[in-house]
Amino acid sequence: MIPLIAGIGISTAIWTVRAITISGTAGMSYATGRKFGRNACNLIDSFEDKARSIVNNAFVPELEK
Q1: What is the residue-wise DSSP string for 1-65?
Q2: Residue 65 and residue 54: Cα distance in Å, rounded?
Q3: How far is Cα 49 from Cα 61, in angstroms, rounded to an integer?
């Protein structure tokens, strides 16, 4: 009977550690993904702004003439 109780206790402890490890990894991955996603979005926005200014500077003066 005692080995059965010890086995259940050890199994529960192992599953608890596994659940905490997986949830911690998932939380860190989510935060890292948001950080890199926000940086990528800002980079793409800056490229878009540069392209828009180049197009406006190149073609708008010709249209105004």
Answers
A1: -HHHHHHHHHHHHHHHHHHHHHHHHHHHHHHHHHHHHHHHHHHHHHHHHHHHHHHHHHHHHHHH-
A2: 18
A3: 18
Give the pTM: 0.57
Of 26, 22, 24, 45, which Cα lies nearest the Cα of 34?
Answer: 26
Q: Is 14 exposed, middle or buried (0-12, 13-18, 19+ CB in 10 A)?
A: exposed
Question: Does the pLDDT at position 12 exceed 90?
Answer: yes
